[in-house]
Specification:
It is a single chain. The protein has helices at residues 39-48, 73-86, 98-108, 136-145, 149-160, 165-172, 175-183, 188-195, 226-238, 258-269, and strands at 5-8, 14-20, 25-29, 53-57, 91-96, 113-119, 216-221, 242-247. The chain is an alpha/beta fold and 270 residues long.
């Protein structure tokens, strides 16, 4: 694997990435808490590099990327666009969780995406499903502003992602795991901003994505929580050119099944 590379986004922020493999360009967009050196992410990039030129980048504020203030979703879209330009002006894109929402928003605004894979975007579309508190994004931002990084991690996981408190308590007892989560806690308000308005238990605003006409694959794990599955199924229905892939092992709330994900992406993006 080649060493770290850097691209400069429109606002001057340095975005770090690794480039590996040969073939059509494929950009990987991580979700909350994740970054390019995350073990599952490195493994996925490595497996996909057998078929593609893989661009595995750190979203702003994470890993080796810069973090110009103030944050705005538009800046993250520009970061992804800068990666696409680096890849030759057109690329396939896979986004996981909040990264899928970022990729979707970039696609809607005309980013040069050839094919798009959206992996379990955390939309809550049914009023009966568990929803984050109304002031979720504000509270996450306030916790980070107060430098309560550990509290922000716990709040995001339990109230945002629906993780049981006991799971978070167990993570706290694993210093290696917990320190990595706390290290990227300041980016949680960014993920919360991306998800604002999409986790309220309401139908998805299809008109926002009428321009997302490239072939799109929406992935969901059959073992995933029902709200995630409903979100994926609804998204596949509202996008103009999407298909749904439901398979056991594609869930992202536990350890990523990199070999299964890579084989499904390889067949879709080829």
């Amino acid at each position: 694997m080649s060493g770290m590379r850097v691209v400069t986004s429109q606002d001057g922020t340095k975005i770090a990435y690794d480039k590996v493999g040969h073939g059509p360009a494929l950009i990987l967009v991580t979700g909350a808490f994740s970054y390019r050196k995350f073990p599952g992410q490195v493994q996925l990039a490595s497996l996909l590099s057998q078929h593609f030129t893989v661009y595995n980048y750190d979203r702003r504020g994470r890993g080796d990327s810069g973090d110009t203030k103030p944050y705005a979703i538009e800046r993250e879209i520009e970061d992804l666009q800068a990666m696409i330009e680096q890849a030759g002006g057109s690329a396939n894109v896979w986004g996981l969780s909040s990264g899928a929402v970022l990729a979707l928003q970039a696609a809607a605004r005309g980013a040069g995406i050839a094919k798009l894979a959206l992996h379990e975007p955390p939309f809550v579309v049914d009023a009966a499903d568990r929803k984050p508190p109304k002031n979720f994004a504000i509270h996450v931002t306030d916790l980070i502003a107060a430098n309560s990084r550990g509290k922000a991690v716990k709040y995001f996981m339990t109230e945002g992602m629906g993780a049981p408190s006991v799971v978070v308590s167990l993570m706290r007892m694993m210093p290696g795991v917990w320190s990595k989560l706390v290290a990227v806690a300041h980016t949680l308000p960014y993920d919360a901003a991306l998800l604002e308005g999409y986790m309220d238990g309401k139908p998805l605003p299809a008109h926002l994505w009428s321009t997302v006409t490239m072939p799109t694959l929406v992935l969901e794990g059959m073992e995933s929580p029902i709200s995630l599955r409903r979100g994926a199924q609804t998204l596949a229905n509202v996008l103009p050119n999407a298909q749904l892939l439901s398979k056991k092992g594609l869930g992202h709330t536990k350890k990523l099944n990199a070999s299964l994900i890579s084989s499904e992406l390889a067949s879709f993006f080829k």
